[in-house]
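Escalation from tier 1.

The customer reports that the assembly of two entities below gives different structure tokens on two consecutive runs. Tier 1 could not reproduce it. I'm attaching the input and our single run for tier 2 to review.
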Amino acid sequence: MRGANAIIKALEMEGVRHIFGIPGGAIIEVYDALFDSEITHILTRHEQAAVHAADGYARASGKTGVAFATSGPGATNTVTGIANAYMDSSPIVVMTGQVPTALIGNDAFQEADITGITMPITKHNYLVTDATKLPEIIKEAFTIASTGRPGPVLIDLPKDVTIADIEFNYPEKIDLIGYKPKTAGHPRQIKRASELIMKSERPVILAGGGIRLSEAQEELLKLAETIPAFVVTTLMGKGAISETHPLCLGFVGMHGTKYADYALHEADLVIAVGCRFSDRTTGRVSDFAPYAKIIHIDIDPAEIGKNVRVDVPIVGDAKLVLKELVNHVQYKQRKEWEDKVNDWRRSYPLRYIKEKDKIKPQFVIEKVYELNPDAIVTTEVGQNQMWAAQYFKVKHPRQFISSGGLGTMGFGFPAAMGAQTAFPEKTVVDIAGDGSILMNIQELATCVDYHIPVKICVLNNAYLGMVRQWQELFYNERYSATRLRYEGLSFEKIAKGFGAVGMTVEKPSEVEDALKEAFEIDTPVLIDFWVEKLENVYPMVPPGAALNEVIDKEV
Amino acid sequence: MRHTIAVLVENKPGVLARISSLFRRRGFNIESLAVGTTEKESISRMTIVVSGDDKTIEQVMKQLNKLVEVIKVSDLTQDSVERELALVKVAVTPEKRSEIIEIANIFRARIVDVSRESFIVEITGDEDKINAFIDLMRQYGIKEISRTGKVSMARGKRTV
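Tier 1 run:
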């Protein structure tokens, strides 16, 4: 069998149904083999978008996403997408074409050392030099990408490898001598954790993206209700518990809710599950949860003790550990603490000033939520992302898809495309800013071409809003290089030019009708909401401040 | 503090690059690195000397363990035999010749190349011994030094 055919056959055996990518000279053989396959290929208009789409597909569905690119510039264009998936532990396999093995190292046309380039941003990568190893390597790649702490794996395919004739034997299982993710938590540590929980008067669960990755939402809910403990989440953990649940305090950190920040700061016990204590979550790390003992449950031992001190480390899969842990704890009433937290929740709700003649960005999100609470929401990065996180209350962990670790502007739209591909029947909304959306706007062509009816809500404030907010608050309103709008720029016309539906909304009274109309239409829609330009995201934990130093706007 | 870490890795192309890339990216500081094959052909052993506080060393070991091609990571700082090897080319004159041979003998070093103007002396031992020898050789004029990184093995029953 030709190497290229073996690759496609292996992907079929892995259950791959969709691939996002762009062909080119070095990967043309693989595309030739793909021509006869049942796998649907979606031709994106930029390789970065192909990888983000595969990432969004993976986050929405739990299946490993797959992206193709050719050698050289095709491969280097995947780098941001790969780094993004790496930071957020998203399982994807990226396959790149490469110049023939005989030419590697000779600076051949469209040659780039993509395995060298992606070494620090992949969980693992391969340069295939022996075609007979293809089946084994692909099996390994999918295993590594999707197990343990998931992450991106890249396979670089020299052209001669894709042409070579090989025997196809796809291994059912592989044994990697140096790769044995630990899944069950240590019983003694679980016992110790349960003792701390039973002693605690002010327990708070901090849930991260690991809940989604290990599908541990039910176990988490059970633990939270049994103890009972309030749950705060990281941005990646949004939806780990339904945000409408009375124990859920929303997301915590730089722009999280004030009551989540306070609860985490005042806790006497933090039960952290599947999170890595990023600086955006902890605030000033030396003052993080100063009164608390910390239990840290994570499948990646390197995350434990990396950023914060930990009293009880538990290495293991969140689902298995939580399932076991809940057996060792009993209900205990903690009325004083409950009252205190509920009091904070009443006193410091998320809020903004509504105005009659100005569209507030928060209002747009509220309307999206009101009209379509079950939509899958993706976000770009910046103010749009934070407002979406604050005002869209998600119910399950695969409902909110956002670039957390890398903070990649331009992620949301292609990610929405990927999520929509996985769930054609659902409504998928990308909450965008007028800066971010331009970073992958070309994918409107893909969406129209493949009938992927993503809805894009551009919160157009004419600025790189989050940077502008920092300039306003911390740089004496010196708005250096953050203004975006100019006479003649029309997102509506851009959308129409691609063959999508474009709308412009300038009045608050039009917001609801525009959204209703967009949700009725079965094609991609971009709505350009001209929102209040100088609106800031609050609450805010200023950079370098502790969580209890959160600031809020006077309302 | 300095730690000596032994790392068993799969003997595959690119493994060394992966490990050095990890050290660079995470800001860990390699002081020396030695690589060679083991009793199994498919496995190589690296001995890495790295300096840092306890937290850093813990991260070094955990991050190394995460690499797919890394099989085992052990800290051999305590209770182990450590050796380096150095080749020292030292200038000789007829008057100093016997003096240098005598010092080499005291250090159990071997003279492995002899010419009219120079010796190459091969010396093995721990770092301090080699440093002491090199210091003594300076007075005669050192032309060249080539040193290996440290290799290390736990004493007694313990194996990596």
